[in-house]
Amino acid sequence: MPDWSNYRGVLVYVEQRNGAAKNVSWQLLGAGQKLAAKLDVSLMALVIGDQVEHLAREAICYGADRVFLCEGPELKDYRTRPYSRITLKLIEDVKPEICLFGATATGRDLAGAIATHLPTGLTADTTELDVEPPPSRLLLASRPAFAEKMMATILCKQYRPQMATARAGVFQALPRDPDRKGEIVRIPNPMGEEQIATRVVEFIEQKSGVNLEEAEIIVAGGRGLGGPEPFKMLKELADALGGEVGASRACVDAGWIKHEHQVGQTGCTVRPKLYFAIGISGAVQHTVGMSNSEVIIAINKDPDAPIFQFAHYGIVGDLFKIVPAITAQVRQRKA
Ligand code: FAD
Questions:
Q1: 279 is in an annotated binding site
Q2: Where would a tag sit more exposed on the chain, N or C end, judged by fewer CB atoms within 10 A?
Q3: Residue 117, φ and ψ in degrees, nearest 5
Q4: How far is the CA of 290 from the centre of ligand 1 (A)?
Q5: Which of 285, 291, 299, 326 to mutate to test the pocket of ligand 1 (most atoms within 8 A of CB)?
Q6: What spacing in Å lies between the alpha carbon of 327 and ligand 1's midpoint?
């Protein structure tokens, strides 16, 4: 193995849009902190944007020891060229042994550009992260492989840094500590606006888009609903609670609801405060995507349904009677 002894520390990229960080960034700091503790190194974060110093302070509250901050009006919106240049220069200067990014559209673009340029290895969509203790210090990045039928642990032995992306909801953020102390290091942007070939002309929000990964409450339905129509009933409960509607793959495959609502191995990984599993049996491909929810309430007419093994509260009965009753109670309490 080459001598990589000058590469030390764990770096997490803090993704933001319009000055608001993606939760996955804080979750990755939580995962990164465990790796850094095992390796006895510092946890670093990188914040890029316009007027985003508050996020550098937040990164410290969520576990970073040192935050590199690069600000400028030309960095307001994500663009591959300047963001990757800044990150590459930082990696060159600071030499972290591990770099973590959210598996978002931006994180995938940025991590891919950097790994290609360095060049080094990048494990995408990791679901488990660990390290071999010194002297090997190898990152053990695990993810489903071979049509999601097995878990593969991928190592990057020959190159540094070792890089990985992870989806939102897979890892847990540390509790926010407002009194935590850390260092903020300002770094320059090596590219002026005139050197950047692309312009962001307009940002069009997807109006109907659901954001399951950031949702605090999810009301998810399965094949037990029997068709697309009962999803309206789930939407009523979700609206009453201020949550989003999720679904099992069976419903998506049947064309009852769009794929963006799917939770599980081939859908979203979620970690809400409250997850309703309604008419969902609890197949492993579904539970891998929601079992980390803080509180799970399952409603199923089959008392032996596997979902009850994951649920904190289980209601055995007909969902068509139970769901409207819960919605009515929620509305009554809010009135
Ligand atoms: P079912 O297993 O059919 O369960 C329906 C449940 O509804 C039953 O438990 C039944 O008792 C209950 N029920 C019926 N009527 C009522 C009623 N009136 N009141 C109360 N309860 C009722 N699945 C996912 O969800 N997400 C994924 O990302 C995913 N990825 C996959 C990837 C691969 C490679 C493979 C092979 C499969 C994947 N699956 C995924 C599919 C998964 O294996 C299951 O087939 C699917 O999750 C089953 O969905 P379900 O629980 O809605 O349906």
A1: yes
A2: C
A3: -70, -35
A4: 13
A5: 285
A6: 23
